[in-house]
Specification:
The chain is 29% helix and 27% strand. By secondary structure, the protein is of the alpha+beta class. Strands 4, 5, 6, 7, 8 and 13 form a six-stranded antiparallel beta sheet that branches. The longest helix is centred in the middle third of the chain and has 24 residues. The two termini are 17 Å apart.
Length: 359
């Protein structure tokens, strides 16, 4: 299905990016003047204390609150049977933010760094050579695996081939690979030179990040409503994807861009507790500090023959909508979903498969 990327930057200091598929909002990102995102940033931090009971360390990485670093996210604890005694107070560590601060909780951190490029994600501390599961065609997966297996990957490092690489050449992937190696070298150099806590790498702004992560051949248009941002987008395409630069359009209509594409109403609904489903059911989303609870409720399904089929149809619709809402609302942590009870094990497996596919 054809997609569009809409970039709304007409309001000073605020940038919003919407990814739309057949008129339906599937991804949404916003950058506000009073909120600076740190997700994906890499820091040199210092351990302030180690909590064996929590199986975690707390790290001062330069932000307001200390970050939370679970032992399982410390790469040098996963080797040679290392224990919590391998990390100590005042020890310096290079960490990446995997979840921003939420409520009274500090940011979640990892030492398993990942550096995203246009076609590859470099993993400095994981010996993984994988291909995105979104590339489903066996021939394409085999071609990409054979292609990248020839790359000169340093020992102990790995990478994941991104969805955008599906139809790219070996030369394009190799260029991205060498860029990421140079970036990692620069980060390591800064880590050696700077005192903790220090910022080593800052993730791209919302416009560049969205284009890097979500543009692919099936995106028919990238529509921008502000001239300065339009020029930046054009520069990005000219440098990275000149083949697709004609798909970038400057929007100059008096009617706001998101209103023209019926996106504004969909964004407003993201703040509602209840989300309707096509068959008449609904899901109810409750966000607490401890977890996110999602309850699935059925409605009157006209085509259902019995209660079991009503439950199946509603649960399948809910699985897809839950995945969409989790992405759009940027929900994380522990998420508990209460689907409608079903007797058939096959039906339960089908709902589980649909949920996995949707994510």
């Amino acid at each position: 299905m054809a997609r569009k990327i809409l970039i709304n930057a007409s309001e000073p200091g605020e940038v919003r990016v919407a990814v739309v598929k057949e008129g339906v909002l599937v991804d949404f990102f916003v950058e506000l003047p009073f909120h600076r995102s740190i997700l994906g940033n890499i820091y040199k931090g210092r351990v302030t204390h180690v909590e064996g009971g929590l199986q975690a360390a707390f790290v001062d990485f330069g932000e307001k609150r200390e970050g939370f670093l679970p032992f399982r996210e410390i790469h040098f604890l996963s080797k040679d049977g290392a224990s919590s005694s391998s990390i100590s107070r005042h020890q310096e560590v290079v960490v990446q933010v995997t979840r921003e601060e939420m409520g009274r909780k500090g940011a979640a951190l990892t030492t398993y760094l990942s550096l995203p490029g246009r076609y590859l994600v470099l993993l400095p501390f994981k010996e993984i050579k994988g291909v995105s599961t979104k590339i489903e065609e066996a021939k394409k997966r085999k071609r990409l695996k054979e292609m990248v297996s020839q790359f000169p990957i340093p020992e102990g490092m790995g990478f994941i081939v991104r969805t955008a690489a599906a139809n790219r050449t070996k030369r394009e992937l190799l260029r991205d690979f060498h860029y990421l190696l140079r970036l990692w070298k620069a980060i390591r150099k800064r880590a050696e030179e700077l005192q903790a806590p220090s910022l080593l790498y800052q993730e791209s702004d919302v416009v560049v990040k969205s284009l890097r992560d979500y543009f692919s051949a099936d995106v028919r248009e990238v529509i921008v409503d502000e001239e300065g941002t339009y020029r930046r987008v054009m520069n990005f395409f000219n440098e990275v994807m000149p083949k697709y630069r004609r798909r970038v359009k400057l929007y100059q209509d008096p009617l706001p861009l998101f209103s023209r594409h019926q996106v504004e109403d969909q964004i407003d609904r993201l703040f509602l507790r209840e989300v309707p489903l096509p068959s008449g059911g609904k899901i109810c989303i409750d966000v607490t500090e401890a977890l996110v609870a999602i309850d699935v409720n059925s409605g009157r399904v006209q085509q259902a023959r019995d209660i079991e089929e009503t439950a199946l149809i509603t649960n399948l619709e809910a699985a897809e909508e839950i995945a969409r809402q989790v992405r759009l609302r940027d929900l994380g942590g522990l998420i508990v979903v209460d689907f409608i009870d079903m007797r058939s094990p096959e039906n339960r497996r089908e709902v589980e498969r649909r949920l996995r596919q949707a994510f």
